[in-house]
Amino acid sequence: MIAVSSLKGVLCAGEPDERVKFNSQRLESPNFQGEKKAPKEN
């Protein structure tokens, strides 16, 4: 949910669509979730 708020803030700031797209792809990408779970295993 926090990430969504950040994306909305970026949109309000008038950042380029490419940057928003990149952030969205990063959040949806399996690698991003994998990196989040990795620290818990350690």
Task: Characterise this structure.
This protein is an all-alpha fold. It contains three helices and no strands. Helix 1 (2-13) runs antiparallel to helix 2 (17-28). The longest helix is centred in the N-terminal third of the chain and has 12 residues, at 2-13. It is flat, with a radius of gyration of 12 Å. The termini are far apart. The model has no long low-confidence stretch (mean pLDDT 58).
Structure described in brief:
The chain is mainly alpha-helical and 42 residues long. The protein is built from three helices and no strands. 86% of the residues lie in helices and 0% in strands.
Distance between the termini: 25 Å
Number of strands: 0
Percent in strands: under 5%
Structural class: mainly alpha
Task: Provide a count of the helices.
Answer: 3
Residue share in helix:
over 70%
Taken from the alpha-carbon principal axes, the silhouette is: flat
Sheet having the most strands = none
Low-pLDDT stretches are none
Q: What number is the mean pLDDT?
A: 58
Indicate the radius of gyration in whole angstroms: 12 Å
> What are the secondary-structure elements, in order, as H or E?
HHH
